[in-house]
Amino acid sequence: MPPFDVPEGDPFGPHNLPYGVFSLTDPAGAPERRVGVRLGDHVLDAGAAAHALGSPYAGLLAQPTLDPLLAAGRTAWSDVRRALTAWVTVPAHRETLAPHFHPLSDVTLHLPFTVADYVDFYASENHARNVGQIFRPDAADSLTPNWKHLPIGYHGRSGTVVVSGTDVVRPSGQRKAPADTAPVFGPSIRLDIEAEVGFVVGTPSEQGRPVPLGDYRDHVFGLCLLNDWSARDIQAWEYVPLGPFLGKSFATSVSAWITPLDALDDARVAPPVRTHPLLPYLDDASEEPGGYDLRISVAINGHVVSEPPFSTMYWTAAQQLAHMTVNGASLRTGDLYGSGTVSGASEGERGSLLELTWNGRDALELPDGKRTFLEDGDEVTLTAWAPGPGGTRVGLGEVRGLITPAVSP
Ligand code: CA
Asked: Could you confirm whether 127 is annotated as catalytic?
């Protein structure tokens, strides 16, 4: 009986169960948003299922966003996941739950939580070195002096985080090539992607109290794929000395499905060997492995251009959380932080066009023509999977975005 009998090997089997928010696309159907859990190519209306089974979690799940579940905390997250796993695997529940499953093709997926603060990091050593070589070719070290001592990050714009499938309007702004005498204004001609993983905070923290490394799982609910769209020409002219601003803030896309950390226990790996001693609040030598073995794939118009391995990230999500709160800054439910562009050591593993084309020098050959940066009409899709229990794969929700032409001011 579909959808219970998910094919063997499906990356969205009962071992995964990511959370999202959906509504029925049919205008004659009930239009309200509800929390959904993905199983194969169906979504379970989690609130309706909880009511039908008389579950105590109906209050957390019969909601238009994930916000109440995010705020409920680690014990509730584990309990709800255990309950959901039983619902979709125990045959006795099949008849009760069948009416509450909807094919993915019948639903519209929405941004699943209210994004509070948004922070983006810069945690891939390969990415940082590539960018250093491209923009500071004369520097003695392609890494800045602070890079191995702290996870570099900046505060982004949470209000422009959008769900997968949302079109991205090409941004306009100022740019000035080094040889030009004055800046010009116009649509970005170096529109790029950054393939990243986003971490979603559930449990808030108190202002003035740093969150230690070991408390990561108590605060972070799960993760998603994230595309940090970047206008390289706007960014290059504006970023000195305060960092990214309009070159990034026009849009950030996230997947519609949030994968709970509990689904990724088999994907945890040790991060790369630390080459510099770490200050105690970042020293994770005695902590559980902080990396994740996520295999990301980047496609432009359906053609795979890169396969960045997340396991190569130097700084872990736990270290990033500890660093962003070490000054006493508090966490709020719905805070989102990006890992930074994921780039592996080889050319086919780079997570941005900036690196893949070496700042436009080496065009990519796609079936529909050459590409240095994105053209109007290009659609970028990020997908990923991680090792799951017993040789299974845990699929992450895809992030898709189509570039539409600039709008004149
Ligand atoms: Ca980024």
From this structure: yes
Pick the catalytic residue from 42, 100, 127, 323.
127
322 pLDDT exceeds 90? yes
Q: Are residues 192 and 260 in the same domain?
A: yes
The residue segments making up the domain with residue 85 are 19-110
Could you tell me the distance, in angstroms and rounded to a whole number, from the CA of residue 194 to the centre of ligand 1?
6
Give the annotated binding-site residues for substrate: 122, 136, 235, 239, 341
Separation of CA 116 and ligand 1 centre (Å): 18
Decide if 149 is inside a domain.
yes
Of the chain, the percentage scoring pLDDT greater than 70 comes to 100
Residue 195 CA, ligand 1 centroid: distance in Å: 8
Q: Name the pTM for this structure.
A: 0.97
Residue 236 lies in a domain: yes
Place of tokens 């270290």: 319
Domain count, the chain: 2
d(CA 223, CA 36): 16
The verdict on 255 and 390 lying in the same domain is yes
Residue 409 lies in a domain: no
pLDDT tens figures, 113-168? 999 999 999 999 999 999 999 988 999 999 999 999 999 999 999 999 999 999 99
Domain finish residue from 60, 93, 110? 110
User: How many percent of the chain have pLDDT more than 90?
Assistant: 95
144-148: long-range pairs with CB below 8 Å, 24+: 147/122, 148/274, 148/275, 148/276, 148/314
